[in-house]
Amino acid sequence: MLEYPVRAFQTKIRRRRCRFCKIRLATKVTYGDRLSGENPAFFCESCYISFHYDTTNRLLYSGTFG
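Above: the chain sequence. Below: its structure as tokens.
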């Protein structure tokens, strides 16, 4: 006896690793990022901060991406 509703398809959750350290899971995605060389670029929190902020925690560049 079938119970309804019958699940016909279940999507797989795709987890990406950070493109730069290749250790931690990516939590940030950037599009048109001029520092990464890829589009989209996947970063973990640590690598994102190291690439995009200086030692005084100021954003290195800002603006819209095209």
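The longest strand covers residues 28-30.
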